[in-house]
Write a structure and sequence with these properties.
alpha+beta, two-stranded parallel ribbon, 26% strand, 327 residues, single chain
Length: 327
């Protein structure tokens, strides 16, 4: 019952030689059952065997934990529970696909030191991944500064709830991005990150693709390409979705229809919808005032209180007085 002790192998050494007693011992978690009279060398040999097995199990458990970081948690769990084969195979499923990237990422980070850029991109992915897992997304991959995720496999809540969870996740990510700007400003990010998001619901092939030596659990199909296209034309800090996704989430979210788009491989125009009020003007979402223009770098935390707030007001007024006198 104690997690810190549960992995210690237990060997019964007993005078109870009845088959029923032995069965009870194993049922209680014993790894071995030795009855009297005993041979000390035999007992020691069995102890050594079980200690070696226990150590090997601990190593495998540690390696499995490390490997889990390279797979979506849902995929890792289904493999270790035996619900999914590790073989080149795929299924056709209805998924809701999330695609995002950072607008002008290369230009924004061009002058940063490699160490600061590494911190920044890893912090970004860590924050977004946390939100993704909270909402039940399967994280497919990171591509540079872009993210590909989906809902509906290997677990699904149903077509509509998968779409709703995806849009809820996108909103949570955009709001978190606005809050992270202060932290990143201290690491030399002179221009705030602005994320674009495209969401589409459609049929894809999902499963293991690649070779027998190297596989990738991912999704393939036109629905993925459409999500990527929506992301490309979407507004920074916004969420642009396809008509199919719109029909599934319209009861919960307010949207505006945008100009139809053409996508390679599809002859007709496709309707798309932008989510409204992604970043509402609420105190928790508009916490920071950030202005950067030639000769000015302003970063204000609007939730300052007490002495710090009064000092900030005095400093700002002093700066305004100096600027007005030197016109």
């Amino acid at each position: 019952a104690d997690a810190s002790l549960a992995q210690i192998p237990v060997i019964f050494l007993t005078a109870l030689a009845d088959a029923g007693d032995e069965e009870t011992g194993f049922a209680l978690g014993a790894v071995d059952y030795i009855t009297k009279p005993v041979s000390p060398p035999t007992v020691l040999a069995r102890v050594r065997i079980h200690l070696a097995l226990s150590q090997r199990t601990a190593v495998l458990r540690s390696l499995a934990g490390k490997l889990s970081h390279y797979l979506p948690p849902q995929v890792y769990q289904s493999i270790f529970e035996g619900r999914q084969e590790v073989a080149i195979q795929a299924e056709r499923k209805l998924l809701t696909i999330f695609f995002s990237d950072i607008k002008d990422f290369t230009q924004t980070t061009d002058e940063m030191e490699p160490e600061d850029l590494t911190y920044l991109i890893n912090d970004y992915f860590s924050e977004m991944s946390r939100i993704a897992l909270e909402h039940g997304a399967t994280i497919d991959k990171f591509i540079g500064d872009a993210m590909l995720m989906f809902f509906g496999d290997p677990e699904t809540r149903g077509e509509q709830e998968d779409a709703l969870q995806c849009v809820r996740m996108a909103v949570a990510m955009q709001r978190r991005m606005s809050q992270l700007q202060s932290r990143w400003a201290t690491r030399g990010l002179n221009k705030p990150f602005h994320m674009r998001v495209g969401i589409n619901t459609g049929y894809c092939n999902v499963g293991n693709f690649g070779s027998e030596q190297r596989m990738d659990y991912t999704i393939i199909g036109g629905a993925v390409n459409l999500a990527a296209r929506l992301q490309q034309i979407g507004e920074p800090d916004g969420v642009l979705m396809s008509y199919k996704t719109f029909t599934l989430v319209s009861e919960e979210f307010v949207t505006e229809e945008r100009t139809p788009i053409m996508v390679k491989g599809i002859a007709r125009e496709l309707r798309c919808f932008a989510l409204r009020d992604v970043l509402p003007n609420a105190p928790e979402d508009a916490r920071y005032i950030i202005k950067r223009t030639p000769g000015l770098q302003l970063h204000v935390d609007t939730l300052l209180d007490g002495t710090a707030r009064q000092q900030a007001i005095r400093d700002l007024n002093e700066a305004i007085d100096v600027l007005q006198r030197n016109r």
